[in-house]
Amino acid sequence: MNKLLALYRQRCKPYLPQSRWLRYPLLIIVAVYLWGWLQRIPLTGEIKTVNALTSSMKTHCIGRHFIDVPKVAIADYPEYTFKIDWATIETLRAGVTPEEYEKHITAFEQALLNTKLIYEPKPPLLLKSERLSAHTHFTHAYESDSSRVHKKLTVHTLVGDRLVMLSVITGDSQYDEARASLLQVAQNLMPMPDNIADIPPGFCAGHVLVKNIPNARERAYVVFGWSKPYDDVLFEVTIENGGSTSEGSLLQRISFGKAMLERMLPQHSVLRSGNKDAGKIDGEEWLSKAKLKNTQLRFLWETSHKNLSSQTPEIRLELNAGLQDASGRYPEKPGFSDNEAIGIWDAMINSLRVRPNAF
Which burial class, exposed, middle or buried, applies to 307 when counting CB atoms under 10 A from its CB (0-12, 13-18, 19+)? Predict the structure, then answer.
């Protein structure tokens, strides 16, 4: 300690203001700055956590891309996760036998027959049922018991042992186009290979693959829920090449709403922001921390390009930590420290790449 004091008197004190009323505030400012800088240096325990999670990553095929995610994160395929043109693709179950498929179709159609439109003369919802092949059925029905205008077109098909449902909600004027789109996707479905190295060209849609359909609009959305002790964390991946792109870049939109954000979240800080390539894909990121009901982290990354195609889709990655659990309770703090979250985030987004043999 004496040596440190001597060093301070020799090297620092001569350059400080002689008045203690000026010197002490300056020292406090320097100390606060150094403390903030030291907070960004990962501790040994944080490095171990990051290494433990990122040394055991699983590769996921989403659309036409690969991304590696820690094995404690489980991919969830919510409704309307995958879409090709008109068709929403949903794998209902795996391990389905032909007999179980027939039972499912019977129950599905019977439910539509038993449900009546609430308007007179109260017809059943089912308008048409058609067997297209041994294990492919098409149904045309009212969307719900209170909808006379919107209809739901559905194709159920057995892809290997996966029971897959394709659906679209549309009006009568678009019936032919919507039906043709459903049938085209159904004809191009195949089971997803167990080994990702064996995936042929096409669009990964969860448990099935859609073989190449020229000029198709494609959308994939996958949520990864993390297991304990990181069950306050969600990681989301969105990849799409159709529809309207976001207005401006990620950082431009955040800059536009910065003043409002600071008023709404006074205890808000930016951990990192700027240009950030994900693998070889150019993009921008914004990593933030805010105090709401608890401390929460929100990390965002988006592609920079706006000329969308199958080869260059719009990609959005988002990590949230400090979310409420299944019982509705918020953790006091996120399962990750700031440095742990940044280390895991970097490992995931740096693994993003176009799948070999994707096209």
Answer: exposed
Span 1-59, pLDDT tens digits: 555 445 445 555 555 556 555 444 544 444 434 444 444 455 688 999 999 999 989 99
pLDDT tens profile 248-307:
889 988 887 665 655 555 567 899 999 999 988 999 999 999 887 889 999 999 998 878
Nearest to 131 by CA among 158, 96, 169: 158
Query: The pTM is what?
Result: 0.84
Q: Are 292 and 302 in contact (CB under 8 A)?
A: no
Q: Band of the pLDDT at 195, cuts 50, 70, 90?
A: very high
pLDDT in tens, 334-345: 989 999 999 999
Q: Which residues pair with 89 in a beta bridge?
A: 82, 166
For Cα atoms 276, 235, 216, give the angle at the middle one, nearest 5 degrees.
80
Neighbouring residues of 74: CB distance < 8 A, sequence distance ≥ 6? 224, 225, 226, 227
- Separation in Å, CA 33 to CA 18, 167, 270: 22, 57, 16
- H helix intervals, 69-155: 98-114
The full DSSP string for 67-83 is EEEETTEEEE--TT-EE
| Half-sphere exposure (Cβ direction) of 143: Cα atoms closer than 13 Å | 12
Name the DSSP class of 124. B
What is the four-CA torsion angle of 333, 334, 335, 336, rounded to 10 degrees? Answer: -120
How big is the CA angle at 74 (ends 68 and 75), to the nearest 5 degrees?
75
Q: What angle do CA 170, 172, 178 make, to 5 degrees?
A: 50
Return d(Cα 60, Cα 50) in angstroms, integer.
Answer: 19
